[in-house]
Amino acid sequence: MSNLLDTLKSYITPELVAKASATLGEEETGILKAIVGWGPSILAGFLSKTDDKDAMNGIFNSISDFNPAILDNLGSLLDGGNLAHNDPKDASGHLLGSILGAKIPAISNVVSAFSGIKSDSTSALLGLVGPLLMGILNKEIKTGDLNVTGFTNLLTGQKENIVGALPGGLTGLLGIGKLTSGDSDVPTGGLNWFWPLLVLLVLGGGIMFYLKNCNNQVAVAPPIVEQAPTAPAPVPALSFPAGTEEAAMLAFVQDPNAVIDKAKWFNFPEIMFDVNQATMKVESEPKMLAVMAILRAYPALKLKIGGYTDTDGNDKLNLTLSDARAKACMAWLIGNGIPADRLEAEGYGESNPVVANDTPEHKAMNRRISFSVRGK
Which letter, b or e, does each residue of 270-293 get, where b requires 16 or more Cβ atoms within 10 Å of its Cβ? Predict the structure, then answer.
């Protein structure tokens, strides 16, 4: 059985990376990291549906009908416009839209922060990696004469590799279980298969020379050229839907004239927890990922995390619960690579409601996690 990520890696040539870099105006290492981020993210999206027979039938049929000829012309996926009547990017877009849906912007922001390239460039690379993976999987189906059960087994048999390669923070969002304690030594964060690609990129000219002249007795190494110091990588251009709290927080961080005010908070009632617990619900992760992306894009940014409850229940218990929830958010961010010295957390219980606690809807607004900028 082929390792899907290794197969994907075999298609990422120095020439393809160079074309993507020139087309999108990004550093080649950033292009590589974005591909490294998208590959396992897409496969994890498929993995998340393996318990849904109808969804797996749909995925299987879409991939079985996909034309893998695009694998011979991947560079064309970086060009504008439809390639043909049956555009591979359209086929991939329809399938990924049905599987990942509203999660795509949040995933894209994480991949953008992970790779250090603009969000528009990250989205464009989805149009490369999606068809590439569909072509690879089509070949697996045809070569192995797989039915939908065999295809499902192909994915589930590689869950460890796929989850281990995901950028931090995407496991819960993509709806796949975390690795068990027996898998704890599997690397996480996507970089475990990035380094061979980076070596290939750096040595690309020499490798291509060797492959084309392998019958010669002596391989001539490429000359070593001393590189001038490179400028720091540009801050990735994050973007969030207008009117959202994360968009407002990003605008505040980016505004050089915005004065830090301890009384100013950005409220996220969408960050939710189990009843009377500090266990974050999976549906909270898109907002947490947005905050994480901002923190990663602006290394000087420091945040205070505030936890709040409604007025139901005991005041003291609510204060304790809100503090535990704020600290759970802080722990989540630290666990996903944000340094602890950039964060602080405190619970405020029932204080500072944003609206009166007079209806269930208003109480839900007051049960929230809030963020206050304390340094930028």
Answer: bbbbeeeebebeeebbbbbbbbbb
Token pair belonging to 333: 């961010």
Of all helices (H) and strands (E), which one includes residue 373?
strand 368-375
User: In this structure, are residues 132 and 88 in contact, taking their beta carbons and an 8 Å threshold?
Assistant: no
Contact 175, 182 (CB under 8 A): no
How do residues 98-147 score in pLDDT, each as one tens digit? 888 777 777 887 888 788 888 778 888 988 999 999 999 999 999 999 99
Q: Is the pTM of this model over 0.70?
A: no
Q: Which residues contact 55 (CB under 8 A, 6 or more apart)?
A: 49, 99
Spatial separation of the C-alpha atoms in residues 193 and 128, rounded to whole Å: 18
Question: How many Cβ atoms sit within 10 Å of the Cβ of residue 313?
Answer: 13
- The better pLDDT of the pair 67, 237 is held by 67
Rounded CA separation 149/60 (Å):
9
Q: Are the beta carbons of 54 and 152 closer than 8 angstroms? A: no
Strand partners, 91: none
Residue 354 CB neighbours (<10 A): 13
For 304-348, give the DSSP string: EEEEE--SSS-HHHHHHHHHHHHHHHHHHHHHTT--GGGEEEEE-
Burial of 182: CB neighbours in 10 Å, binned 0-12, 13-18, 19+: exposed
Helix (H) or strand (E) holding 370: strand 368-375
Residues 6 or more apart whose Cβ sits within 8 Å of residue 220: 209, 213
> Which domains does the chain show, CATH number per domain?
4-199 (no CATH), 245-375 (3.30.1330.60)
- Binned at pLDDT 50, 70 and 90, residue 82 comes out as very low
| Dist. CA 306–CA 368, nearest whole Å | 8
Three-class SS state of 79: coil
